[in-house]
């Protein structure tokens, strides 16, 4: 699953610094001027998963393979981006190609780092970004409605359904609300996604704070968290500068540095996990002497669908899944012990895989 999360924000809020830390590279320029990132940088990042090490220890695995997620560093948006300001059209297209959006809000004060609006106000920054995305969605929908209406009048059921959803989105946008707050039925979800609306994408607010607020946040990040609750979004506090420093340390140095800051883990771990969850994803595991691996599936995936992530033949010829919950696998020292304890289950085609299941598929092609 090559799912992508766009890192979006105004210039100089810490997007590229955050991206550099995420990918542990200096691939993206983190300079103090607008549009230092012109072409979007894409980073493939491992999803932090402490359960993998525990499973690998029990299974005696030689290798650990985590789930992965892509982050895209998109150049800074400015007021008027929906009308092409600041290379806005190109940047909006980059966002449209992603599955979710991480809005980076500047929640720190530093006179040495300029702000394109000449002030530090994360809520106002988010308002500018959201407004530009909403305006872009409005323009996109208004161009399509007329043609959809014509086709719907000829009896085209698909066009009629798309028109209904487009009008539902327009109703929210015209009321000043992002499209994601619209109530969409499960049957309409696929057609809704096909509208490719920027404001319908799952959203994470990333509060970029200074070092002193990395563990607890500050008044500005608290205000952003409150807005996230109202906007049907999630939020996380992080210090991009600290994370960029942590990313350059080895494991021992990292642990010592985190301890001095009073942090249990890097903020990036929380951000990556929140993004993973935001996309409606979860992991199941396979374990053996060769490797312990996390496989990415949508929440609600059945056993055959989950098997298909490994290989399409597994789904086509699915017979059953031998399944052990993570906790039972660890408690009873692996598959054999779990079987003896009656904790290894035989699950069929209707089984909905749970996060953390340890699975072995039986199939026949």
Structural class: alpha/beta
Distance between the termini: 24 Å
User: How are helices and strands ordered from N to C?
Assistant: EHEHEEHEHHHEHEHHHEEHHEHHEE
Low-confidence stretches: 25-38
Cα Rg: 23 Å
The backbone outline, from C-alpha atoms, is flat
The overall strand count is 12
Strand order of the largest sheet: 2-4-1-5-6-7
Largest pleated sheet: 6 strands, mixed
Topology:
Blueprint: E1 4-8, H1 15-23, E2 41-46, H2 50-59, E3 63-65, E4 68-73, H3 88-96, E5 100-106, H4 122-153, H5 157-174, H6 189-194, E6 203-208, H7 219-230, E7 234-238, H8 240-246, H9 251-261, H10 267-278, E8 281-287, E9 291-298, H11 303-310, H12 312-316, E10 318-324, H13 326-331, H14 335-340, E11 345-347, E12 358-363
Parallel strand pairs: 1-4, 1-5, 3-9, 5-6, 6-7
Antiparallel strand pairs: 2-4, 8-9, 10-11, 10-12
Helix pairs in contact: 1-8, 4-5
């Amino acid at each position: 699953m090559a799912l992508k999360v766009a890192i979006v924000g105004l210039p100089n809020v810490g997007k590229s610094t955050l991206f550099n830390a995420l990918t542990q590279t200096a691939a993206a320029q983190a300079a103090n001027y607008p549009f230092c990132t012109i072409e979007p940088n894409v980073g493939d990042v491992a999803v932090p998963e402490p359960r993998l090490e525990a499973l690998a220890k029990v299974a005696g695995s030689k290798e650990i393979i985590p789930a992965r997620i892509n982050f895209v560093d998109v150049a800074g948006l400015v007021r008027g981006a929906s009308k092409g300001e600041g290379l806005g059209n190109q940047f909006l297209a980059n966002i449209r190609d992603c599955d979710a959006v991480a809005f980076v809000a500047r929640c720190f004060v530093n006179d040495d780092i300029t702000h394109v609006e000449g002030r530090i106000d994360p809520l106002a920054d988010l308002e500018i970004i959201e407004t530009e995305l909403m305006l872009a969605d409005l323009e996109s929908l208004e161009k399509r409605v007329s043609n959809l209406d014509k086709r719907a009048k000829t009896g085209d059921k698909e066009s009629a359904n798309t028109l209904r959803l487009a009008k539902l989105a327009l109703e929210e946008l015209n009321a000043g609300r992002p499209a994601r707050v619209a109530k969409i039925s499960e049957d309409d979800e696929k057609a809704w996604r096909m509208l490719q609306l920027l404001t319908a994408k799952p959203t994470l607010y990333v509060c970029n704070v200074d070092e002193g607020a990395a563990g607890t946040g500050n008044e500005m990040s608290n205000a952003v968290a409150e807005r996230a609750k109202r906007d049907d979004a999630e939020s996380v506090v992080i210090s991009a500068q600290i994370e960029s420093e942590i990313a350059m340390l080895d494991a021992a140095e990292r642990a010592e540095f985190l301890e001095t800051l009073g942090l249990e883990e890097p903020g990036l771990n929380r951000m990556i996990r929140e993004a993973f969850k935001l996309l409606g994803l979860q992991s199941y595991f396979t374990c053996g002497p060769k490797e312990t691996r996390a496989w990415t599936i949508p929440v609600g995936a059945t056993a055959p669908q989950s098997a298909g992530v490994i290989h399409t033949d597994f789904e086509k010829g699915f017979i059953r899944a031998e399944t052990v919950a993570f906790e039972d696998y660890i408690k009873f020292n692996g598959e054999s012990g779990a079987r003896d304890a009656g904790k290894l289950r035989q699950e069929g085609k209707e089984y909905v895989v749970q996060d953390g299941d340890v699975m072995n598929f039986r199939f026949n092609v």
